[in-house]
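Summary for the steering committee. One of the milestones for this cycle was to obtain a three-dimensional model of the protein with NDP bound, which we needed before selecting residues for the alanine scan. The sequence and ligand used are listed below.
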Amino acid sequence: MTKRSHTFSRNMGVLAIILVTPPVAIILWYTDQHLHGSVSELFRFFRDHGFFGGLWKMWGPVFWGSSTAWSILGIFAATELVLMKILPGKKVQGPVTPKGYTPVYRNNGFAAFLVSLFLFWLLGYQMKLFRPAMIYDHFGEILGALNIFSLSFTLLLYVKGLCCPTTPDSGTTGSFLFDYYWGTDLYPHILGINVKHFANCRFGMMSWPLLILAFAAKQHEMYGTVSDSMIVSVFLQLVYVGIFFYYESGYFKTMDIQVDRAGYYLIWGVMVWVPSVYTLTAHWLVNHPIHIGPVLSVLFVGVGLFSFWSKTSMNRQRIRVREHDGNYNIWGHPARIIRARYTDDKGEERESILLVDGWWRIARHFHYVGEILGALCWSLPALAGGIIPYFYVFYLTLLLVHRARRDDKRCRLKYGKYWEEYTKQVPYKILPGVF
Ligand code: NDP
């Protein structure tokens, strides 16, 4: 393939993603909230109204959001910004970028998570300043507003990255479309706020627990009780997000932060896709108060917690072995490692550690199995509920398979022969014998 045709097909792929993902988020919400979460009803809806007519019937009324939706989002964003700034936390460093920049963060994510849940309970349930279930009632408008905001904000970040990037890790590929999608700045700051830290963690990830609690509140309002399926699903998701914030400083060392720039893929993804798709099971359960009984409840919670523990343990091993410069014990013996040398973008030679032990001996991204299994456990309370409550697990599996390939390519390029040596010892990407 010539360079020109490669650029063309890459840009067409990017255009397709930008055109398809917003309607998908809206269709999923509408199907869940107005078509009983039924895909066959969705097909009938499109058959009766035509695809574009039907899409506009769903999206038109919520396209620009509403004053209520913008107010909810404004209050939420302002609260999270204040918490990010005022809550105490140690300063932690992220990994050095290829251009030699070291990002610094305040590690107060878990405190922000707890305070956010507390405020939600205090203002919603104790002081009754708002009705938590109203978030479900206005969810379509919220998604409309989030979509408009994220698309515009990504454009602003694109321009900022070109004219006044925050760090040297920025630049253009020469294609507006690809730059808009991928971003022009790796670590943009606006008015002293680290945009990715705020958007990914304090906005996207923090919206998730609050939304599912609001969905549970809606079910309670409708049926006078919260079903055990909803309790199990929401509980597992709260634990998942709690763990994420507990190890937020570890997240600064993942691909989202150290590789992906602040473009549509990341910013729209965390500000629209996370609130709409990651919360889908709980959203679907609102109108389907399934009773799963104690045996299945214990099973789903047990396997779910085990999955979270295993993937967290795997992330921890990778981070700790580097923090201890390789002098670290894994499962009772000194960790086996490869000291990999690489040259950064400034031409400086650096050294890093590749772990070849513990979980990292099984497969190069074995933690993705824990990630998928955990998500399956909070989706399974929907039992045979069709596609919608399992949509996130399907999507996550595709995302992680693609991500494992992407990471492999990146590490091969970065570490060269050291990566070859590593892949000889750990040949599988995710699941031994399968992939
Ligand atoms: P990893 O945490 O696997 O980080 C990948 C990076 O780790 C590589 O780029 C490389 O970076 C380094 N690395 C690779 N192999 C080794 C090794 N053997 N020893 C030490 N370091 C190594 O990837 P992700 O960012 O994809 O995942 C982070 C977490 O987020 C996971 O728990 C994942 O499940 C979760 N996740 C969740 C998603 C969701 O939507 N729910 C989406 C994606 C991830 P370096 O350049 O530093 O060497």
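Key point for the committee: The mean pLDDT is 96.
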